[in-house]
Amino acid sequence: MRSAPVTPDGDLIRWIELPGCGGPAAGPARVYVHGLGASSPAYYTEAALHPLLADRRSLLVDLLGFGLSDRPAGFDYTLESHADALAAVITAAGAEGAELVAHSMGGAIAIVLAARHPGLVSRLVLVDSNLDPVPLPGPPGGGSSGIASFGEEEFLAGGWEQVRDAVSPHWWSTMRLAGRVGLHRSAVHLARGTAPTMRELLLTLDLPRTFLFPAQDGALPGEEALRASGVTVVAVPDCGHNIMLDSPDAFAHAVAAA
């Protein structure tokens, strides 16, 4: 396990690193970023070890507040702060010019990182990522809008138990590792989005970009504009939101093709 301090107080982000069988000549490192309430080692290990992807150095990073990383109550957990903390990890790991493979909330953070720290990112592979703000308040429960429907004190006082009961056992298996302050604040800021929005930022980025989404979802909102700006849009069959878990072989083929 590796770690790097990412706040003035020395709070640590931790990651699992796979050295890659191809060495530096195989290409830039891949940095895998999880979604809300998840953990990169739990979500990506099988796919990152797929023969099509195992040649690259791979960093399976847990964002601050989640999984193996520290859970500081003094961190604001905005998308911008998450992005800056992840940028510090990429720099500390000597992985500048990385390819970011980022799921759901992690994709929103990756977009912001690429906009704020363009020298650190050579390519984005977004996995069914959040691109737009979510209307609030939503019904209390799972997902960013459900978590964000609670006030912070209300969530900490017991609202988290409603979330626990609303989400799948699989999601809860990693969500329970998250700091509750970080989980709530991250959900609030994800639902709120950024200005410009993540979608608007993505359309203007000057680097290769690929967006993967489940084919079963039908048409991707805004797909025409994404394609017009140079984003490669790929519908992945036989999967739901967690593409890397539901169909790791198809996921690996899509990431390798990107």
From TrEMBL:
Q: Which InterPro entries match?
A: AB_hydrolase_1 (IPR000073), AB_hydrolase_fold (IPR029058), AB_hydrolase_sf (IPR050266)
| A GO molecular function held by the record | hydrolase activity
Organism, scientific name: Kitasatospora camelliae
Q: Which domain of life is it from?
A: Bacteria
Q: Does the keyword Endoplasmic reticulum apply?
A: no
Q: Which GO terms describe its cellular component?
A: membrane
Instruction: Please state what the protein is called.
Output: Alpha/beta hydrolase
- Report the residue ranges that make up the AB hydrolase-1 domain in this protein: 31-140
Q: Which keywords does the record carry?
A: Hydrolase
Query: Could you list the residue ranges forming a coiled coil in this record?
Result: none
